[in-house]
Specification:
The chain is of the alpha+beta class and about 325 residues long. The protein folds into two domains: about 90 residues, 2-Layer Sandwich (Phosphorylase Kinase, domain 1), CATH 3.30.200; about 230 residues, Aminoglycoside phosphotransferase (APH), C-terminal lobe (Aminoglycoside 3'-phosphotransferase, Chain: A, domain 2), CATH 3.90.1200. The chain has ten helices and ten strands. The strands form three sheets. Strands 1-2-3-5-4 form a five-stranded antiparallel β-sheet, with helices on one face. A three-stranded antiparallel β-sheet has the order 6-8-9, with helices on one face. Strands 7-10 form a two-stranded antiparallel ribbon. This is Spore coat protein CotS. Keywords: Capsid protein, Virion. InterPro entries: CotS-like, Kinase-like_dom_sf.
Length: about 325
């Protein structure tokens, strides 16, 4: 163990049995189990909120999160000689969720539903302002951003391959975005009572660990936020479907897993459908391009756009299956 890590760990009332590096992290075997020491780059205020919420979750019965250790001085952070902040948190001997494995997808969605169920039972929310952006406002904002990016690229001289392809496919994706917004606005009154609460905010396969006994641990709550619970589920399912050519079986498996702890109503399914209707991946690539320097576009950016174009037919096929399912619930999408 380096002298730096030794000094940092000595600030905790924790007996370290052994240390090792794993995928760029510094992990420790302690008398309290596996722990992870890492640099912290966020705000101390957000860290305190995250700590408080994880403690509330644990007290309410949701135990398997990467809760933080406090130092001997009851601080959440400790500093090295260069004033770089570090945190020490509980961790788990497990593997990332395999989003191509139906059993892992079911377990992850079941775990998410349990997280939401426990969260909804906690009365004291550590957010002062519980206002959340409506989904229609979110879609409207993203559509404005898409128009701005289209206008910017239109003025670029000597367009590169990414910009040429972007201009060529923009109209079709923007039409989808406008269509999604129009449908959402029509249904907004019916969706006004969608359940909101404290959400993970970045619940995807990288932040879900499958443990040796096949229980599930949830880590990396840095994006903790107050929003509709279904946005957590949508994010996990969207990323899972993208990895599986929008195979409807993965959607059904995820929904079945989630429904074990939280019943989904007809309005919930409609809300999920409208979220999937929006071309989120195209907006993400657009946003990444616009917010990075334009003098050199990484080849990966072009590859991502090409992949979105190639996958869009699969996505439309999934949406048709989803729409057919909604009709069995007597939900009119016209």
């Amino acid at each position: 163990m380096s002298e730096k890590y030794k000094e940092l760990l000595e600030q905790y009332d924790v007996k370290v049995l052994s240390t090792f590096r794993s995928r760029g992290t510094f992990q420790c075997e302690t008398e309290q189990g596996l722990a992870l020491l890492k640099e912290y780059h966020g705000s101390l205020q957000k860290l305190a909120l995250e700590y408080e919420w994880k403690e509330k979750l644990a007290n309410a019965g949701f135990l398997t999160t990467d809760r933080y250790f406090l130092t001997k001085e009851a601080s959440l952070v400790t500093y090295d000689r260069y004033r770089t902040p570090f945190v020490l948190k509980h961790y788990f001997k497990g593997r990332e969720c395999d989003c191509r494995n139906l059993s892992d997808v079911a377990a992850s969605c079941r775990n998410l539903a349990f997280l939401h169920k426990v969260s909804s039972s906690i009365e004291e929310i550590p957010f002062e302002n519980l206002k959340t952006e409506t989904t229609s406002h979110l879609f409207e904002r993203k559509n404005r951003e898409l128009r701005s990016i289209r206008k910017f690229i239109g003025k670029v001289r000597g367009k590169n391959d990414f910009e040429l392809l972007y201009m060529n496919c923009f109209d079709s994706f923007y039409k989808e975005a406008s269509h999604a917004l129009a449908h959402l606005l029509k249904a907004e009154a019916d969706l006004a009572d969608t359940d909101c609460g404290m959400c993970h905010g970045a619940y995807h396969y990288h932040n879900v660990l499958i443990l040796p006994d096949y229980s599930v641990a949830t880590v990396n709550f840095e994006s903790l936020c107050y929003q509709p619970y279904l946005l957590d589920l949508y994010l996990f399912l969207r990323k899972t479907l993208e990895k599986n050519h929008y195979d409807y079986a993965f959607f059904e498996t995820g929904i079945s897993g989630y429904s074990i702890y939280r019943h989904l109503t007809e309005k919930d399914f409609l809300f999920l459908y409208l979220l999937f209707l929006y071309p989120e991946k195209f907006w993400k690539i657009s946003n990444q391009y616009y917010n990075h320097r334009k003098s050199w576009i990484p080849p990966r950016t072009l590859e991502k756009l090409q992949k979105v174009l190639a996958q869009n037919e699969e996505r439309h096929s999934f949406l048709k299956q989803f729409a057919d399912f909604l009709r069995t619930l007597n939900i009119n999408l016209l």
